[in-house]
User: Fold these one by one.
Assistant:
Number 1:
Amino acid sequence: MTIYDLTLAELRTKLDNRELSAVEVAEAYRARIAATDQDVNAYITVCDESAMAEAKLADQALAAGEIAPLTGLPIAAKDIFNTAGLKTTCASRILENYIAPYDATVIARIKEQKAVITGKLNMDEFAMGSSNENSAFGATRNPWNLNHVPGGSSGGSAACVASRQAAAALGTDTGGSIRQPASHCGVVGLKPTYGRVSRYGVIAYASSLDQVGPITRDVRDSALLLQAIAGHDPADSTSIDTPVPDYQATLTQELTGLKVGLPAEYFIDGLDEDVRRAVEQAVATYKELGAEIVEVSLPHTSYAVACYYLIATAEASSNLARYDGVRYGVRTDQAENLIDMYMQSRAAGFGAEVKRRIMLGTYALSSGYYDAYYLKAQKVRTMIRQDFLDAFAKVDVLLTPVAPTPAFTIGEKTNDPLQMYLSDIYTIPVNLAGTCAMSLPCGFSAAGLPIGLQLIGKPFEEATILRTAHAFEQATEWHKRKPEF
Ligand code: GLN
C-alpha cells in the first residue's frame, strides 16, 4: 500500500483504526511533493513545518477520540483562499508577499476538523485563464504528460490531486475553473450551486459567478469534502441559509428512472472525436444503469461565452481596483506622484491577461457602452438561466462534455485569447445559470490524456449529481488509473 494513493475515505478508515498516524501520512506527502513538484509545479507554497504541527495535533485528537470527518487528512488549497500566517498570492506579482490576517471560511472549516493543510496551489493569476499558464510563478504541468497544460484556473489543484501531492484540494470555479482542470487531469471536480459554499475570504474575481468546490480522486471523497465546506455563512451575504443534506447517505441510491438530458447544442462541430466517443460511451453506460436518456435544448448556449466575458470582466475590473499599492498590493518606489504610483504599481504587478480583462471590463461598464454591453449581457444571462430551468422541468440531470478537447500543449493557445476562452464553452453556462455541476473521468484520448464527463444538476441538487456520478464510477474503472511519471 502506498500512502499517497489512498483516497480521503480510505485514509479515514486507516487513521481511525490506527493502521496509520496523521504524522506518517503528512510525511509521505512531504516526500511525494519533494520528489515530484519540480516537474509539476503545482504548489506555490509548501507547508512543511505547519503541516507537521497540524498532523501532530490531529494525532492527539485521534488519540483522544475527538474525530471529525477530515481529522488528519492532507488537503491543499488553491492560492486564492486567504490563510492566516501563510502567503496568499493569487499567483500574482502584486500579491507576492501578501499574508492575510484571517482564514477564509472554507479554510477555517477544514481546520476546525483538524485537516492537515499541505500547501497553497498554483493557478492562473486571479483565476483568469484555462491553462494555468497565466501564473506569475510559472506554468503548472499536466501529470499525464508534462508537455500539456493541466487546465485552469485551478490547474495546480487538479494536477496536485492527480499527481498524489495531496489527497484532495479546494478550488474555485467562475466559468469552469474546477471542472475543466479536473477533466484534463483525470480527477473529480465539483462546482456547487452559487450560494452553497461561503466565498468569505476567497479573493474575488467575478463575484456573481465565483464558487468554491472540492477536487478529489473519486466521487465519495467529493461528497466528503463538500459536506465539510457547504452551508450558510453569515459573513457571506450571498451564501444561502438552507439545510445541507447528508451527501454520503444518498450516494449509493439506484439510478432506475433517473432522467438524463443531453442538450443538443453541446454536441456540435468542433467537439474532438475522442471526447465525443468517450461521452457517448458514458451515455450508453447510463442506459445500462437504468437511466432514461432524453434529448433537450438549451437554445441560448451560443451566447454564453460572449455574455460571460462581459459580466466576468466587468466584475473583475471593479474587484481588482483595490490592488493599487495603497490598500493592497506591492507598491512601486519609483513613482513621482500619487497617480503615477497607482499606474506603475498596477503596470508592474498585473500580468497581461489580467490587464486585458480589466480593460475589457472597464470598457463594458463605461457610460455610453453600459447599456449596449453590460446590461445586454445581464439580459442574456437571464435567458441562459431560463434555458436550464426549462430543461430541468423535463430531466433530473444534464450530461455533457466538460471541454471540447483533451488538454492542449503548453504554449498552444497563449497567443490566441479567443481560442483559450472557447475552452470553457461547456462550463461557462452553468456559472451564468448559478447551478451545480461536476466533472468526472470518463475515458482517455488516443494520446493517453484523460477526458471528463460533465453532470449538471438543478440548483442545490448536488446530492443528485453526486449519486449519478457515483453510479457511473462504480460501473467503470477510469478513476482508478493514475499518471505514472
Ligand atoms: N477560464 C475562464 C476564465 O478565464 C474561467 C476561469 C474560472 O472559472 N475562474 O475566466
Number 2:
Amino acid sequence: MKRNYLKGLLSAFAVGLMGFGASAQPNVVIIFADDLGYGDLSCYGNPTIATPHLDKMAQEGAKLTQFYVGAPVCSPSRAALLTGCYPKRVGLHVGVLSPNSKTGLNPKEETIAELLKEEGYATACFGKWHLGHHDKFMPLNQGFDQFYGFPYSNDMSRKEQLKINPNSKYKYHLPWLDQRDTIAIDPDQTNVTQKLTARALEFISGNRNNKFFLYLAYPMPHIPLYASEKFQGTSPRGLYGDVVSELDWGVGEILGLLKKKGLDDNTLVIFTSDNGPWKVFKTHGGSAGPLRGAKGTTWEGGVREPAIFRWPGHINGGQQITDVTSAMDILPTIAKLCKAPLPSRKIDGRDISSLLLSNESPEERPFIYYTKMGKLAGVREGAFKLVADGDAYYLYNVEEDISEEYDLKDKKPELYKRMMSLMHELDAEMNREAREVGRL
Ligand code: MG
C-alpha cells in the first residue's frame, strides 16, 4: 500500500514536471523512405530483407496495412504528406519536379513544420526535399529551421546518369546543401544514410529539452542505390537489401537515442515511404509484396505503403490497423496530438488520433487515386476500388482480392456506376477548389 502511495506521489510529481516543462505537446519524428515498397520490410512479409529495428518499432507501436500516399511519385506525394492535401489541391499533381522546374510548393500552403514552429517547436528537414529547389520553395521558407540534404532526387545528376547511360546528355548536377550553402556537387552517395542519421541524432540531442519536429526524408532506396561499406554485401537480397538494412539501422539509432535520452514516451515516431517500388530497375527496385503494380501506377503497389506509428505509453504496441488511412491524415493527426491549430485553408486528411490511441475507427472517407501526372484514375470506398488502366475501368474488392485480379464490374454494375459518379463528383469538387502551385 505504502509503495503504491509513493508511486502515485511520484507519478503526480512527474506529471507536474511535464506541466512545468510544458512538454505535454509531444515531439514528432517522421522518417520518410524513398521508393520503398509495401513488401520491403520483414514485418510486412519480406522473406530476405532483415529489418529488425522497424520490426521492433511495429511491435512497440501500430502497423497500418491500408495506408495510402497521395501520389505514386515523389514530389506530389511529399506535398501531400507535408500539407495534408491531395497534390491537386495544392497544384503539385503533375509529375515530379526537375532541376529546371520553375514551380514548387506554394509558400502560402501551411506545412506540418509551420504548424509546429508556431507552437515553439524546433524544426528540421534532413534528406530529400523535392518540392521546388528555388529558395522561396525550399525548407527554410516552409517552416523548417534547418535543412541538410538534396533539393531533389539522387538520380538528378550528370554523374549518376552517365553511369546508367554513357551517352547521356543530362546536364544537371546534384547539390548537397547545408542550410542554403552548397557544400558538395554530385557527392559520393555511399555515406548519405550515415550522414543524415548523424545529423538527425545531433538534432535530437541538441533539442532534448525543447519540443522538436524532425522530418528525416532518406533519399534511399531510390536509384542509384548506395550503402556504406559496413552494409555492402550484407543482405541476401543484394544491394537493395543492403540499402534497406542501412535505413533500418538508422531507424534503430534514432529510437535508441530517444530511449537513452528519456524521450521515448514523449515522442511520436512515424515511418513510411513516398511511393511504391521502382520495379523498372529490376533488382535495384523494391517489392510491393502481394500488391499489383509499382511506382508510377495507381495499382495498389504504387500508392499503398508500409506505415508504422510508435508512441510508447500512448499507442498500444503490437497493433495491426486495417482501416483505410492516408499520408494526408498525418498533418491533422499531429495537429491534434500537438494541440496546434489546423491550417486556415481546406485540407483533405482527417485526424486519426483516436484510431491510434484508442482503436476507434474514424469516419470513412473515400480515397481518390490520381496518376503520376495528376490525372483522375480511381476511387476507393470501403473495400471497393474503381481504377482506370488507360481508358478502361475496373472494379475490385481489394480486401478480398489484394492483388486486383478479379474484376467485378460486370457482377456489380450498380456499384460500378455509383463509384464512377462518386469519383467524378469528388474530382469536380477538387477542381473547383484547387489552389495555385508556387511560381517563381
Ligand atoms: Mg519516390
